[in-house]
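Subject: design request, 407 residues
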């Protein structure tokens, strides 16, 4: 029943996009085809290049309109591409427009959007009307031709056919909406190289901020904690030295107390130093992920099944990223998921490392809604990896991190 409700459920924005999008698709398709046709005709004249420059600038504007429409009605977030460079001089600016990949990709989008717009309008409007006509065919026949005997075989075929086509409407709408989302992300967003540069810049800024915060915390902890313990240890040893002064004679009871205090302070300082250095380079990674990950899951309050297939050892930076990713995800499971069991699977082969963490909790996890997943995705992206989240309401949650073994 849940699958049936999910199949029949359609967002109102999908219907609105199919209806409102048809005139925009016709406008954009005609514009793109006219630009290509007229540009080819005028290419040998003086007006050719200025016409194409103006047409490409107009295509950018139409692309912005379509991108907003897809985001508002279909709920697909399409990042805005980078702006046009503005060099000095009209010729240089015209050359920048003519070599702008965003404008040319937008023209291609407008051409491909035309058949999708027609199909979407047909699925949203014409197909339901046709289904209504087929379902009511026995009534229409009797109203239009009251004196004619009814064709029972047509009645028997029309009603099931109309119901069958009506059941296919949600699936057709969902398929066309998905095609429109993918087409918009592919052609209206930034080019892959530009998007990759933007992701790396964001990841670099995030890592620099995290490293700065980590260094400040480490400096504060060393100053307020470890340094204070060492000062106390030095004072204790100084008192012990005074106890051994030759003029008064050693006080063995006081000396024993001071030595015991010094030993305790030394142990506390060692524990403090271990705690501070654990976040810098975990000791558990000395033996690789095949030893570190089982030790990490052993401390989880939620029972975790571990499945490892590590045929090669990744770079140290990649190992640290996978280790901290697993630690963060297991912490999220314990704090937020309400899960009763979880599974951690890691594999390393053919130059790729994959980490998969599943749980049977309540689901609903997503990038950008807390639980640290956004920051985790940025840390994974900093080592050229990708974090994917699949967590429908009610669960289960499956989070996959895929990284290269070598950087």
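Subject: RE: design request

Done. Sequence follows.
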């Amino acid at each position: 029943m849940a699958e049936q409700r999910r199949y029949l459920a359609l967002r109102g924005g999908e219907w609105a996009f199919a209806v409102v999008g048809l005139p925009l698709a016709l406008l954009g398709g005609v514009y793109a085809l006219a630009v290509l046709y007229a540009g080819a005709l005028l290419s040998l004249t003086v007006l050719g290049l200025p016409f194409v420059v103006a047409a490409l600038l107009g295509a950018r504007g139409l692309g912005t309109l379509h991108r907003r429409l897809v985001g508002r009605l279909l709920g697909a977030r399409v990042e805005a591409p980078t702006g046009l460079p503005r060099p000095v001089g009209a010729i240089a600016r015209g050359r920048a427009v003519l070599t702008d990949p965003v404008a040319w990709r937008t023209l291609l989008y407008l051409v491909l959007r035309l058949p999708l717009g027609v199909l979407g309008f047909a699925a949203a409007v014409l197909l339901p009307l046709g289904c209504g006509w087929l379902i009511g065919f026995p009534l229409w026949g009797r109203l239009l031709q009251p004196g004619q005997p009814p064709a029972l075989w047509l009645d028997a075929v029309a009603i099931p056919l109309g119901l069958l086509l009506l059941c296919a409407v949600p699936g057709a709408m969902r398929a066309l909406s998905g095609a429109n989302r993918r087409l918009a992300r592919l052609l209206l967003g930034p080019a892959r190289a530009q998007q990759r540069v933007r992701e790396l810049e964001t990841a670099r800024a995030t890592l620099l901020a995290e490293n700065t915060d980590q260094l400040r915390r480490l400096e504060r902890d060393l100053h307020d904690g470890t340094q204070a313990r060492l000062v106390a240890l030095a004072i204790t040893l100084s008192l012990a030295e005074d106890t051994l002064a030759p003029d008064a004679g050693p006080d063995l009871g006081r000396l024993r107390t001071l030595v015991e205090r010094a030993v305790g302070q030394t142990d506390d300082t060692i524990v403090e130093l271990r705690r501070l250095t654990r976040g810098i380079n975990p000791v558990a990674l000395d033996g690789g992920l095949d030893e570190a990950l089982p030790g990490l899951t052993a401390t989880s309050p939620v029972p975790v099944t571990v499945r490892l297939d590590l045929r090669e050892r990744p770079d140290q930076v990649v190992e640290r990223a996978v280790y901290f990713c697993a630690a963060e995800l297991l912490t999220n499971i314990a704090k937020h998921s309400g899960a009763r069991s979880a599974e951690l699977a890691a594999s390393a082969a053919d130059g790729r490392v994959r980490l998969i963490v599943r749980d049977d909790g309540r689901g609903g996890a997503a990038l950008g809604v807390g639980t640290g997943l956004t920051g985790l995705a940025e840390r994974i992206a900093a080592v050229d990896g990708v974090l994917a989240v699949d967590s429908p309401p009610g669960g289960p949650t499956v989070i996959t991190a895929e990284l290269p073994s070598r950087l």
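Residues 192-243 form the longest helix (52 residues).
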